[in-house]
Amino acid sequence: KLKKLIEIGVVAKSEDLVEKAVSEIHAVLLKRHGQEDFRIDTMEESIAMLDTVMNALTGIVTGIAAISLLVGGIGIANIMLVAVTERIREIGIRKAVGAKKRDILVQFLIEAVIISLMGGVLGIIFGVGVSSIAMYFIGLPLIITPWSIFMATLVSILVGVVSGVYPATRAAKLDPVEALRYE
Fold first, then answer.
1. Do the domain assignments include residue 11?
2. CA separation for the pair 31, 25 (Å, rounded)
3. Which residues, by range, are in coiled-coil regions (predicted)?
4. Kind and range of the H or E element at 174?
5. Averaged pLDDT for residues 3-17
6. Model pLDDT for residues 49-61, shown as the tens digit of each residue
7. Has residue 92 been placed in a domain?
8. Does residue 17 lie within any of the structural domains?
9. What tens digit of pLDDT does each residue of 43-86 get?
10. Is residue 175 part of a domain?
C-alpha cells in the first residue's frame, strides 16, 4: 500500500487549459483528503521561483565582482604610489631634460592600465574556467559572448585609469629640483 505520495506530474492538453486543470485537480484532492494537505505548482510558478533564485545569485555575484574591483583598484593605486616613490629621481631627470607634466602623467596612467589589464585578462580566464566547471556539473551549456569579454576588458581599463589618476598626478606635479635631491 502507498502511504505517502510525493509528486504527481500532470500535463494539460493546451496552455489555455492549465488554470482549469489546476482547479479540477485541487477540487478532487480536497474532496479525497478532506483537508488541504497538498500543494499544486504550475510550470509558470516553478519558472518564477527559478527566476527569483537566479536574480539572487546574480546579485551575489555582482556584489562579489564589485568588491573585487574595489580591492583591485586600491591595490593598483598602492602599487603605482610605490612606483612613483621609487622613481622620484627618474621623474626629476625626465623633467630636467624636458619631459612635460602630461608626459609623466600619461606614462604612469599607461602603467596602471597595463597592470589592470593583466589582472582583467587573468580574471576573464579564471571566470571562464570556473564557469565552465560549474556549467559542466549543472549540465547546462556555457555561453560566453564577445560583448561580455569586451565589457570585462573595458571595466579593467576603467579601473586602471581611475586607480592610476592620483599616483600619476602626484608624479606629474613633482618639482624637478626637489625630485633630483630625493634619495
1. no
2. 10
3. none
4. none
5. 80
6. 889 999 999 999 9
7. yes
8. no
9. 888 888 889 999 999 999 999 999 999 999 999 999 999 999 99
10. yes
Domain around 135: 72-181
Cell of 146: 564577445
**For all residues of the chain together, what is the average pLDDT?**
91
pLDDT at 40 over 90: no
At 165, the amino acid letter reads V
pLDDT for residue 3 is more than 90: no
Q: Are 91 and 84 in contact (CB under 8 A)?
A: yes
Gyration radius of the chain over CA positions: 30
Q: DSSP assignment, residue 173?
A: T
DSSP secondary structure string for all residues of 97-145: TT--HHHHHHHHHHHHHHHHHHHHHHHHHHHHHHHHHHHHHHT------
